[in-house]
Specification:
2 copies of one chain form a homodimer.
Chain A lengths: L14 H16 L6 H8 L3 H7 L3 H21 L9 H16 L8 H8 L6 H23 L5 H19 L10 H12 L4
Helix pairs in contact in A: 1-2, 1-4, 4-7, 5-8, 5-9, 6-7, 7-8, 8-9
Chain A binds a DNA duplex (30 and 30 nucleotides) through α3.
Chain lengths: ~200, ~200
DNA sequence: GTGTATACGTACCGGTCAGTAACATTGTCA
DNA sequence: TGACAATGTTACTGACCGGTACGTATACAC
């Protein structure tokens, strides 16, 4: 008589996964430097050696957090509000609409990848490297979308949108009543002024 | 026979001042959390008790750094490139011109006040409080300038400029080859599209 | 049953952190 | 000379940090 039912319906849930989840939550909310590995494992309900079996160091755990964050970011960016968009302008505006709504909520903490580059000025930090690579990709994607909108200078409009979005990320953490409120209007202004009319 | 010449040309330089200077440099370059008080006093050429005679805690030292940074900021903002401007549009564009030039330099670290709010999510941190108060003032000042430019909606243009500027601060630390390059063009676009023409 | 591999916990390490106590030294002014 | 204020010197604390040596429980193979 073996296990009867449920081969593994109750999930054991690997320690490494619990740690990733715990780290993601804590690192995002409080910052990477502010959170010790003890706090991470305690919240995960595991012990420290389990962490170091799956991750070489706290820095590498932070890098894993960055990769998880990035995957999640792309999902939210490519389907803002869970919806797909064929029109580039509507796509970007939808993302900014959702983003700026979140950014005026209490406790908003901006973009985890951006925050990590602020926390780690040194270029050889593993977490920072993931973040930097992501921001390059994001910039390219925004230029692409700007091109699809028919911008006269897609590079400029793409950069404009990136600057605007990063501005939302960071000002959103400064106060609940910040300039992110105006972001959607600004985005429209920017796009319309950049797209050839006649 | 007293001191002959130079009442104090060779400056004794108060320990507190040396500490402020040392802290400002280190906190800005490496981040506040990343720098220990030992490093601050060592660079200042003083000892730890001297620090704690002038500052109640590291947090309070960080708050002092914020205040110093802010004073310096206003100087640079109100006279970009050392020059005064009577025209609001030229004033803002001059600031953004200088800023974006700095932002593409290697080792650029953005705005110390912005960075501090990223490092300290908790609202009761003394340094963060200084930074938050400053950002409120800055927002008001930009709206004021937007009004002087004759914007149809000064609040929107002011916010647009703030989002843009914060975007420059933060993307400037992500890479030397970032969107800050386009910032001046974007600023002109934004202003021209916001100012009533006919 | 007895290997053997995997997954995990207990207990600990040395270092660094912010902060302090007690005392010695200096320079200034009167 | 004497008093005061500012600083340096030395040594220390307790908490926390990232990281690890080592023992333990379970499961599957033969």
């Amino acid at each position: 008589m073996k296990k009867a039912v449920e081969p593994s319906a109750e999930r054991p849930v690997r320690a490494a996964d619990r740690i990733r989840a715990s780290a993601s939550e804590l690192f995002y909310r409080e910052g990477i430097r502010a959170v010790g590995v003890d706090e991470v494992v305690e919240r995960a309900g595991v012990t420290k050696p389990s962490l170091y079996r799956s991750f070489a160091s706290k820095d590498e755990l932070a890098a894993a957090y960055m990769r998880d964050y990035e995957a999640n970011f792309w999902e939210k960016f490519e389907k803002p509000g869970g919806k797909s968009y064929s029109d580039a302008r509507e796509h970007v505006l939808a993302y900014i609409r959702v983003l700026s709504a979140n950014a005026v909520a209490e406790g908003y903490r901006g973009c985890g990848l951006t925050n990590a580059t602020v926390e780690y000025p040194s270029r050889d930090n593993p977490a920072r490297q993931v973040a930097e690579a992501h921001k390059k990709l994001f910039r390219r994607r925004l230029r692409e979308l700007a091109g699809s909108m028919g911008a006269r200078h897609p590079a400029v409009l793409g950069d404009a949108l990136l600057l605007l979005i990063e501005g939302i990320y960071v000002t959103g953490q400064q106060s609940e009543d910040g300039p992110a409120q105006s972001a959607l209007t600004v985005a429209k202004l920017l796009i319309d002024a950049s797209v050839a009319k006649g």
